[in-house]
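Posting for a labmate who doesn't have an account.
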Amino acid sequence: MWITTDRGVRLAAEVREGDAVVVMAHGFCSDRHSRGRFDRLADDFTDLGLGVVRFDFSGCGESDDDVVTAANEVADLRAALAFTRGLGARRIALHGHSLGASICLQAYDEGIATLVLTGGATGPMHYDWSEHYSAEQLDQLRRTGFMRDGRHLLSSETLREFEERDQDALLGPIKCPMLLIHGDGDPEERELLRLSRRATLPEGSRLTVVHGAPHSFEGHLDEVSALARAWYREHLR
């Protein structure tokens, strides 16, 4: 199935309709499967009687090519929300991981009943990009403003956005209760947890830590699923 954005970009999607629907947003340069994690969670949410909409952000997975930027991904998620509402969903929740969690916050509107965010970036993160990309890629980025990482087209803006998040601006508009799930099993996740502990969250929200979980939450998906399902039972049904 395809969702078409206002930019005319087609997003590859998998849809399970329902009266209450969870729209899922994957992480940086991932896809709607998230190495099987989103497949598993989608099945668990469906077992609750919830609908689920999963999609590949533009420039990722099977969606049309595009520059991977926060602005494009926010527009993509808003297109997915419009699509979900067009199916007649009465209640909608967002479920985002990593960068997808930040995109959920930026795409939020008051029609969203609740959010569950795993490994979410709620503030500025500083990465040593030389640990992730080759010297040739980074040189190309400096010279042209763009570089390729496999099929993903990244820009200078793409990487700069990680360092420029304003936590108050990101969380200030959120009116619904939200569940932040963090691990503490690797340096990246510990820094993300530190940022979230400094955040002012909406009334009724909760921050919980899955001890030992790395940023991917691999090996801890049972715990993540149980936390998310309990939250949706309370806030979405």
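Reply:
Got it, the structure tokens are right above this. Residues 70-86 form the longest helix (17 residues).
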